[in-house]
Design goal:
By secondary structure, the chain is an alpha/beta fold. It has helices at residues 22-33, 42-55, 57-69, 121-133, 143-155, 168-183, 235-246, 261-264, 272-283, 302-307, 334-337, 361-377, 379-400, 431-451, 470-493; strands at 88-92, 95-98, 103-106, 161-165, 187-191, 227-230, 251-256, 286-290, 313-316, 328-332, 406-410, 413-417, 454-455, 461-463. It folds into 2 domains: 22-111 and 378-493, Aspartate Aminotransferase, domain 1 (Alpha-Beta Complex); 121-377, Type I PLP-dependent aspartate aminotransferase-like (Major domain) (Aspartate Aminotransferase, domain 2). The strands form 3 sheets. The chain has a 7-stranded mixed beta sheet, with helices on both faces. The protein has a 4-stranded mixed beta sheet with strand order 1-2-3-13. It has a 3-stranded antiparallel beta sheet with strand order 11-12-14, with helices on both faces.
Length: 494
């Protein structure tokens, strides 16, 4: 690792102690993908399923009823879990408790926004006060809309104006619409494997690079006509695509996750974002940073504060409401954001956006106090130190049990790759043969972690928070040790 740090907008050290060694990680991931999956033995899986049967009957009943009324039994993919979703009834700090009374260490963090830890009292008290006096929504202006927008303006230098919306998906939709309005161009370039929400125009090249419209069911081909994909980290491919588009009307925007697709699953090199900025400037395209996960989690100035690169537009999600609902928005320069100026008398080039519940009082009071508390307490840096401790502990366990797994972290975003499924390539003739078993193994690992009392994001990503003390991290590592020991024992026996 190289020791690279940066200053955030508020002058505090960004919550990333060092940038990972990308070359070494890519070599390790290549070995993982080209080796047989190191799965848990059948006996261990049977024991974990028996744990669910014995200890999670209440969750099983809830899941069974959900399946009768909800497609697939879940309303959002984060809740997917083998052998059935867990019915969580209590969240506090670094822990979740289910309807059966089982307590888990929470590394899901609701998909990333709870940097302070779940249900933080300083935020909850302010939300309760507002509900007692104003209620969650009025449809009119509220002072906390202004307070939140000003705070984001002060924290993130690229944001001169901020428009709050209902989700990260809406933020991406608005950013693309503003970019097209501002530039008069149509093409949008994304990096393969990145997820930028589920709008028609960006369900393309999801999760695994090169998959194009594979997951675009129900979306007309015309909706993806101007969406393009380049391989992760491939600056030459990006420059070539920008140049080719110049002959076809040009590129409105290049949208990237600044640490790499899927929150760094395909990790970028430190110089990547600055090079993308230069490439966009050379072709008159806007640069859009999708910071739905990274904004404020990786420092109060976001990933852009760490890299020192200023995008034209930034998409926000989860964290701007502190883990409360209606969390999303877009911010950028006054010139570009002017496209969102609305009202009955609005004239000129205008990008239409809406949302009756956008910037509702509940979301804004929660977001303002969450961000203020994070800034005052140094929560991103504390969460980052917890991520460092967790990653170091996982790496030691992997070595001890002689497993091919790969772990690394970008501050409080910790990756744990046991199957390599997201690093498969369509160029491999065995792609579809490998995809199924590795996806199945990922579910098995997630199930094992949960049965041991650890909640992860799909068994491969872990978000730490300021609530993850050294004691909590060490407790989690002891639980991972039990899972890894079973996988290592299988290999030793073979």
């Amino acid at each position: 690792m190289t020791a690279e740090t940066a200053e955030t907008a508020t002058g505090t050290t960004a919550a990333i102690s060092a940038w990972p060694d990308v070359d070494a990680i890519e070599r390790d991931l290549d070995r993982l993908v080209h080796a047989p999956p190191r799965r848990l033995p059948a006996a261990a899986l049977a024991d974990y399923r028996a744990w669910y049967d014995k200890n999670a009957a209440g969750s099983r009943a809830t899941a069974a009823e959900a399946a009768a009324y909800i497609p697939g039994g879940v309303q959002h993919n984060l809740a997917l879990n083998e052998p059935w979703p867990l019915d969580i009834v209590r969240a506090e700090g670094a822990h979740l408790t289910d309807v059966d009374g089982n307590r888990y260490i929470d590394f899901l963090a609701a998909g990333g926004p709870t940097v302070l830890g779940s249900n933080h009292p300083a935020v909850r008290e302010k939300v309760t006060e507002l509900l007692a006096t104003c209620g969650p929504v009025t449809g009119m202006l509220h002072s906390y809309e202004v307070k939140l927008a000003k705070l984001i303006h002060d924290l993130v230098p690229s944001v001169q104006r901020f428009r709050m919306l209902g989700s990260g998906t809406e933020g991406v939709m608005a950013a693309i619409r503003a970019a097209r309005t501002h530039t008069g161009k149509a093409h949008v370039i994304k990096v393969g494997g990145a997820y930028h929400g589920w709008s028609d125009q960006l369900v393309y090249g999801l999760r695994i690079p090169g998959t194009g419209a594979l997951e675009a069911a129900g979306i007309p081909e015309q909706a993806l006509r101007f969406t393009q994909e380049v391989p992760p980290g491939d600056l030459d491919a990006l420059r070539d695509r920008l140049a080719a588009n110049a002959a076809e009307g040009g590129t409105a925007a290049v949208i990237v996750e600044p640490i790499g697709p899927e929150s760094g699953t395909h990790l970028v090199r430190p110089e990547f974002n600055a090079a993308v900025r230069e490439a966009c400037d050379a072709q008159g395209a806007l640069l859009v940073f999708d910071e739905v996960v990274t904004a404020f989690r990786l420092g109060m100035g976001g990933a852009q504060g760490y890299f020192g690169v200023r995008p034209d537009l930034t998409v926000f999600g989860k964290c701007v409401a502190g883990g409360y609902p209606a969390a999303g928005g877009v911010g950028g320069s006054q010139e570009v954001m002017a496209a969102f100026e609305g009202g009955l008398t609005a004239v000129g080039k205008r990008a239409f956006v809406g949302g009756t519940l956008s910037a509702n009082p509940l979301s804004c009071v929660a977001g303002y106090h969450a961000l203020a508390e994070m800034d005052a307490t140094g929560a991103p840096a504390r969460a980052g130190r917890a991520g460092d401790r967790l990653r170091a502990g996982l790496a030691a366990l992997i070595d001890r049990h002689r497993l091919p797994y790969v772990t690394y972290n970008v501050g409080s975003i910790v990756h744990l790759h046991t199957t390599g499924v997201l690093h498969l390539t369509l160029a491999d003739p065995a792609f579809f043969e490998e995809l199924g078993p590795r996806m199945e193994m990922l579910g098995e690992m997630s199930m094992a972690y949960s049965a041991e009392g650890v909640i992860t994001l799909a068994g491969s990503r872990l978000y730490t928070s300021a609530a993850h003390t050294d004691e909590v991290i060490d407790d989690a590592l002891a639980r991972f040790d039990r899972v890894f020991a079973k996988a290592g024992a299988e290999a030793a026996a073979a």
